[in-house]
Amino acid sequence: MRNWTIGKKITLYYAAVLIAFTAVFCVAVYFSAVNQIKDTARTTLTSAVDDGFEHIVYDEGIIQIGDDFQTNYRGVAIIVYDETGVRIKGSEPAGFPIYTPLKSGEYHQIETGGENWMIYDTLKVYENGSGIWIRGIYTLDSGFASLGAITITVMLAIPGLMIIAVIAGGLIARKSMRPVAKITEAAAKINNGHDLSLRLPVGKSRDELYRLAETLNAMIDRLETAFKSEAEFTSDVSHELKTPVAVILAECEYALAAADTEEEYKEALSAIQNQCRRMNSLITQLLQVSRTINTGKVIEKHDFSLSDLCESVTGELKAVAEGRGVSLSADVQPDISFNGDETLIMRMLINLLSNGIKYSDPSKAESRVKLRLYSVGGSTAGSGPSSGDGAAVMEVRDNGIGISDADLPHVFNRFYKADKSRTRDSDSSSDSAVTDSFGLGLSMVKWIAEAHGGSVRAESRKGEGSVFTVELPIN
Ligand code: ADP
User: Fold this and answer.
1) I need a labelling partner for 155 at 20 to 30 A (CA). Which of 39, 316, 389, 462 fits?
2) CA of 92 to the centre of ligand 1 (A)
């Protein structure tokens, strides 16, 4: 039975339930029919005996049985006895045991020679002290015979009906399982051909299988996206590594083949060092991305002060900003607490502020980057520790080089670099917070915001500056 199909199992359960239900139903109907026959017999007997007494008249000490006294009333044989049990009128039906004792006010059932009788006796004592018995005898056989005939018909019909019901049940089960077979077939095709562009058939009716196929299709969508982005990621990383490796190789070849003086060797080594720094920077950022995005681990949330975090990150980056001639400031609403992964939120802030510093415009007299933190909505928005259904808003505004309208929609894509000219071939800068450009930072920012149920958006004008706004829900 373990290897049985669901269709077979459903048919078996269905048949078992059907048989049990039919058996219980038939037994219940049989006993209720027997009771009904007996009830009818009792009612008929009572009215027959009562009717008999109505035709017995007591007048001036004499008991007289009227001429219209019926000895057979609605199928009931009525017999009159005197108080000693001597029959006065009527006669017992053939086969009835005539010595059955009289018992007043009782119905009893007797069975002789395969015949069933229900009897009812009543004794009435008149004023002169004489008593009259009336016995009603009703045969139950006609009722039982009809019931027997019906029972035989039902017994003969049930197996046939049962077979029809089981076959029909089996067909219905098989038909309803057909979409499952189709889904399995399609899933096998996807699996065998490693073709994630195929989808499972969803069918027309919006039933459980429709929802199952839809859910599986959504899962395949995600897998397809994940595999595609994995492939893109590998190709992007290879591409990013290709240039420095090519430069290193060229420099080595030049040094080995053509360099003569110490000066020329130093020049080649310095170029190699720059490329190595750049590769190192890329590897560091890739590690950061993989720790942040690719781990798939659940983010570790705890309550912390977002206000304090903003203040401290700004404080730490101030020196770096000043080193690049950028004035970094913060306008932080105090006491905004947040439940989230503090390290990730810090990484997000560092990325946004570093970009503001990195993409400053040297042609401007004063370069500014400003972080604003405030809360919106919620029961205590705007003052005191935040709680309720509000949001914490982090806004990083700069007056740097800005982003063109064509680039703006893509800046959150992995490895997207809007301003290629700013992609620095590694300088000797030691400020790790403002590192080389690889187009990885904003994709991480987006992931972090969304992992906290929030969002990030960018507004920018080429040559004027940019505003990055992160909204994090505070529950
Ligand atoms: P990276 O800065 O390492 O290149 P990001 O993902 O942080 O990567 O940014 C993607 C691109 O968006 C950058 O290459 C840059 O062209 C543009 N960008 C990001 N932030 C700013 C900003 N504040 N001002 C101007 N351009 C920006």
Assistant:
1) 39
2) 115
Per-residue pLDDT of the chain (475 residues; tens, 9 = 90+): 678 888 888 888 888 998 899 999 999 999 999 999 999 999 999 999 999 999 998 888 888 888 889 899 889 999 999 989 999 999 999 889 888 899 988 899 998 888 899 999 999 998 888 899 999 999 999 899 999 999 999 999 988 998 998 899 889 888 888 888 888 998 998 888 788 888 988 888 888 888 999 999 999 999 998 888 888 888 989 988 998 999 999 999 999 998 899 999 999 999 999 999 999 989 988 888 888 775 556 688 999 999 999 999 999 999 999 999 999 999 999 999 999 999 999 999 999 999 999 999 999 999 999 999 999 986 544 444 444 579 999 999 999 999 999 999 999 998 888 866 554 444 444 444 455 788 999 999 999 999 999 999 999 999 999 999 999 999 7
Q: What is the Cα–Cα distance from 301 to 185, expressed in whole angstroms?
A: 42
352 C-alpha to center of ligand 1: Å? 9
Burial class of residue 137 in the structure, from the number of CB atoms within 10 Å of its CB (0-12 exposed, 13-18 middle, 19+ buried): buried
Answer whether 15's CB lies under 8 Å from 169's CB.
yes
Q: pTM of the prediction?
A: 0.60
State the DSSP H helix or E strand holding residue 367, giving kind and residue range, or none if neither.
strand 367-377
Give the ligand 1 atom nearest the CA of 418.
16
Place of tokens 């990150």: 313
Residue with CA closest to ligand 1 atom 14: 417
Instruction: Tell me which residue has its CA closest to atom 12 in ligand 1.
Output: 411
447 lines ligand 1 (CB under 6 A): no
From 283, 363, 412, 417, the mutation candidate for ligand 1 (largest count of ligand atoms within 8 A of CB) is 417
